[in-house]
């Protein structure tokens, strides 16, 4: 089983320009993500996909592999799909978000476990238990699953509505994805959809077009860097770790 890990890295982020190059402790963030992906034994190859020469130069300096892409991609997955075409020997492709510097090799292995077990789902993603304090947080994306661990719906809203007391299969969605090779090429051709636009969640495009997403489980979420305040939190986390050591 050959699995390609692609880290889409965009310089011109609206909320945080230059985000992949910000330093966390002694390394740029893109290096943190790259090294985490390299530690995952499930991946045959790890590459950074970018349209930025500054990011490409940074990746080459720390010894990483980089692929230049077009600059007109609307989503990170579109960028991943372009790069996947250059690696025809790969059976599955993982989209490892470039804003998750604390992602672990175990999480990435869990993401692609169905492929490692000989299955061939169109797409997989990752989720963890949803803490009560995150239920009403629109930044914590919720996913409801069916009895076969397939996503029913993703939302920033608190779902489901508990008219009756009980336990529901709702989890905290983590923005990591993997695709079968054939489906990733198909995904890149799917037209955007209304629910995707309303929620601002590109994975809803897959459900709205009638395809399935298998939701794999991990133990807990890791910090994502979306804003400068998230970066400060990450730096504080590193400082606390150093003190404890």
Describe the structure.
The chain has 245 residues and is of the alpha/beta class. The protein is 31% helix and 22% strand. The chain has 8 helices and 11 strands. The protein has helices spanning 29-38, 53-61, 76-84, 105-116, 181-187, 194-199, 204-208, 228-244, and strands at 3-8, 23-24, 27-28, 45-50, 66-68, 92-95, 123-129, 142-145, 151-155, 170-180, 214-217. α3 packs across α5 (181-187). The mean pLDDT is 94.
Task: Describe, in short, the structure shown.
This protein is an alpha/beta fold. It is built from eight helices and eleven strands.
Strand and helix map with partners:
Elements: E1 3-8, E2 23-24, E3 27-28, H1 29-38, E4 45-50, H2 53-61, E5 66-68, H3 76-84, E6 92-95, H4 105-116, E7 123-129, E8 142-145, E9 151-155, E10 170-180, H5 181-187, H6 194-199, H7 204-208, E11 214-217, H8 228-244
Parallel strand pairs: 1-4, 1-6, 4-5, 7-11
Antiparallel strand pairs: 2-3, 6-10, 7-10, 8-9, 8-10
Helix pairs in contact: 3-5
């Amino acid at each position: 089983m050959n699995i390609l890990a692609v880290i889409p890295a965009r310089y011109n982020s609206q909320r945080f320009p230059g985000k992949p190059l910000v330093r966390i402790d002694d390394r740029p963030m893109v290096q943190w993500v790259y090294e985490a992906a390299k530690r995952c034994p499930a991946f045959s190859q790890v590459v950074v996909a970018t349209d930025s020469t500054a990011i490409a130069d940074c990746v080459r300096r720390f010894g990483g592999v980089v692929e230049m892409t077009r600059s007109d991609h609307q989503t990170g997955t579109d960028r991943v799909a372009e790069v996947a075409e250059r690696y025809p020997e790969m059976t599955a492709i993982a989209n490892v978000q470039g804003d998750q510097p604390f992602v672990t090799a175990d999480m990435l292995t869990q993401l692609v476990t169905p492929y490692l077990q000989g299955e061939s789902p169109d797409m997989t993603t990752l989720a963890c238990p949803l803490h009560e304090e995150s239920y009403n947080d629109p930044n914590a994306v919720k996913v409801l699953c069916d009895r076969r661990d397939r996503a029913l719906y993703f939302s920033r809203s608190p779902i489901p509505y508990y008219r009756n007391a009980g336990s529901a299969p709702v989890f905290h969605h983590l923005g990591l994805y993997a695709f079968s090779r054939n489906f990733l090429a198909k995904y890149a051709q799917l037209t955007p959809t209304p629910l995707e636009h309303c929620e601002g969640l590109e994975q809803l495009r897959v459900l709205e077009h009638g395809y399935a997403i298998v939701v794999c489980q991990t133990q807990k979420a890791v910090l994502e860097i979306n804003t400068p305040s998230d970066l400060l939190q990450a730096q504080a986390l590193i400082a606390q770790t150093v003190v404890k050591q």
